[in-house]
Amino acid sequence: MAPYTLRWGIISTGGIATTFAKDLLVDPATRDVSDVQHAIAAVGSRSVPSAEAFIAKLRSAGGASAHGVAAGALDKATPYGSYDEVFADPAVDVVYIGTPHPYHHPNAKAALLAGKHVLCEKPFVMDLAELDELIAIAKEKNLFLMEAVWTRFHPIAYAVQKEIHSGKLGRVRRVTAELSSYAHLDERADNDRMIDPKLGGGALLDLGPYPSVWSMLVLHQHPDNTDATPTVIDHNQRIYARNGVDELSAWTVRWDGLAESRILCDFTAWTPRDCAAVVDCENGQLVIEHPLYRPERYRILPHPSTVGQITEESVHHYPIPAGNGMHYEADEVARCIRDGRTESARMPLAESRVVQGWFDTVRKGGKSVLKDLVGNAGK
Asked: Which reactions appear under catalytic activity for this entry (predicted)?
């Protein structure tokens, strides 16, 4: 049987949208997928020439993306000078939203109201009220909606969960996860998206979704977890004085009856290369290597003392065979829409609400200029 083809509309032509679009063109067979495939039906930008340039860039990208170009995945891609035209195009099944954080809610809302399924980049929105409005619209219109937390769908993510949830390492005692990236803040312009409050700047929203992934996969989805609403029990922020956004955010989350996780994101230092996340268990430790958003190796280590059943280090490698790795989440979207599902069991909306709630708590409890931000819900 021929694979199901999902037709994408891409809005925004920036870096993350480029990476996603290139991954749509990678041969599904390279990741052992034969039931779904992807085509780009429309691209929306500020002008038609900008959208045309984006499509031309994809056509000439080469490498792993050359397969999709040769297979015709761009043949019917229409360039538009507005997002609304993408939302109105009957050839578009689903819209990928790769705009800056504060625009996620209005863009996703407009797409849903136009009757399109939506995959929206992380962080999903600026506050929980915005997310709840999107969820309500999607449910009312029976449309698929998902946050683009691509790391959840990587082979290594499933492998880590299987390792921990099997019980081989014993009870989980604690999870620590960090994504830090030295961002040279003083060299950036005031309107740079990393530090501009109007663009949702700061480490919390830019980096925070990635360490949160591993806390959610390991603890929230643990078979022994009974706490659907884990609580932020402490948090702190350090503020970048020039723009008033957070340059560092850290918080601890407790799952009652299970364990705690300490999460850190920082624009002023680098993540340790060999231990971006550590799952400490009774019998040993599972250590995930950097980059935390796209790791390919984890190690199982004995405890520093002789306590525990793990006595030798083992290394586990899960490379992404082609492309950057965003095609895995695209495959999930295709299967859900093909099968008539309005949300992903792997990335359910309830779990997006949990993490968005953490961000709201840390932001509101800090001293950044975004502390009292109120989103666009209802507007």
From this structure: D-xylose + NADP(+) = D-xylono-1,5-lactone + NADPH + H(+)
The secondary structure of residue 219, as a DSSP letter, is I
Residue ranges of the chain whose pLDDT lies below 50: none
pLDDT at 308: 65
Domains of the chain: 4-149 (3.40.50.720), 155-319+353-365 (3.30.360.10)
Concatenated DSSP letters of 339-379: TT-SS-SSS-HHHHHHHHHHHHHHHHHS-STTTT----TT-
- Nearest one of 139, 88, 96, 134 to 115, comparing CA atoms: 88
* pLDDT reported for residue 208: 98
Tell me the torsion sign for CA atoms 264, 268, 269, 271: positive
Q: Which residues does 51 contact at the CB level (< 8 Å), separation at least 6?
A: 13, 43, 44, 45, 79, 80, 81
HSE at residue 128, side-chain half, CA atoms within 13 A, is 15
Q: Is 163 helix (H, G, I), strand (E, B) or coil?
A: helix
Neighbours of 248 (CB within 10 A): 20
Strand order in 231-239's β-sheet?
231-239, 246-255, 259-266, 172-180, 277-281, 285-288, 297-301, 314-317
Q: Is 22 helix (H, G, I), strand (E, B) or coil?
A: helix
Q: Please report, for residues 14, 163, 293, 298, 317, the alpha-carbon distance to residue 273 in angstroms, rounded to integers and kept in the order given.
A: 27, 21, 12, 12, 15
pTM of the model: 0.97
- Helices (H) then strands (E): counts for the chain: 11, 14
pLDDT at 118 (0 to 100): 98
What does the block give as tokens for 249? 């955010």
The count of residues in the chain is 379
